[in-house]
Design a protein that fits this description.
Elements lengths: L3 E2 L10 E5 L4 H11 L5 E5 L2 H10 L4 E4 L5 H14 L5 E6 L13 E6 L5 H10 L11
Parallel strand pairs: 2-3, 2-4, 4-5, 5-6
Antiparallel strand pairs: 1-3
Length: about 140
C-alpha cells in the first residue's frame, strides 16, 4: 500500500508531518484533526516499512506515532529517526495505562497520554514544529 498524502507541498515543506499507525478507528479519529488542517501536509503510513522509507526519502518535520503501534516498532522507528534525521521530533501517542511510554526519552521525543482533550494533539504538533508565526493555530 502507498502512503497517503493529504496535500502535495514541496518536498522541503518543514510542516510535513508523518503519521504512522496501522488502520484503526481510534487513530483515524485522532489523525483526522491533523489531516484536515490546511497549514500542514500529512503523510499517513500504515506499516513500519512505509514509515521508515518516508523518513529516509522525504523531508519530514515531525513524526506522530499512533497508540496502536507496538513498542518494538516504536523502538525501530525511533532508532531510524535518530540515525537519519536526528533533529526530527517524535510525538508518541500512548494509552494512559501503557507502561512503555517511559522508555522513550530524549530532547526530540514526547509522549502524549490518551485520552486527549480537544485540540491537544494539534497544539502539540504546533509546539513541536515551532509554529508561532501569525496565522498558525498556536497563536489563536
Amino acid at each position: 500500500m502507498n502512503p497517503r498524502i493529504s496535500r502535495r507541498p514541496s518536498n522541503r515543506d518543514p510542516r510535513r508531518v508523518l503519521l504512522f499507525a496501522p488502520a484503526s478507528a481510534d487513530d483515524a479519529e485522532l489523525f483526522a484533526e491533523l489531516e484536515g488542517r490546511a497549514d500542514l501536509s500529512t503523510l499517513r503510513t500504515l506499516t513500519l516499512a512505509e514509515a521508515e522509507r518516508a523518513l529516509c526519502e522525504q523531508s519530514i518535520g515531525l513524526v506522530v506515532v499512533g497508540h496502536s503501534v507496538h513498542a518494538e516498532f516504536v523502538d525501530r522507528l525511533a532508532s531510524r529517526a535518530a540515525a537519519s534525521k536526528p533533529r526530527v521530533p517524535l510525538l508518541l501517542l500512548r494509552s494512559r495505562t501503557d507502561p512503555d511510554g517511559a522508555q522513550w526519552q530524549g530532547p526530540a521525543v514526547a509522549v502524549l497520554r490518551l485520552p486527549l482533550v480537544s485540540l491537544a494533539l494539534s497544539r502539540s504538533v504546533d509546539a513541536a514544529l515551532g509554529m508561532t508565526e501569525p496565522g498558525s493555530r498556536s497563536s489563536r
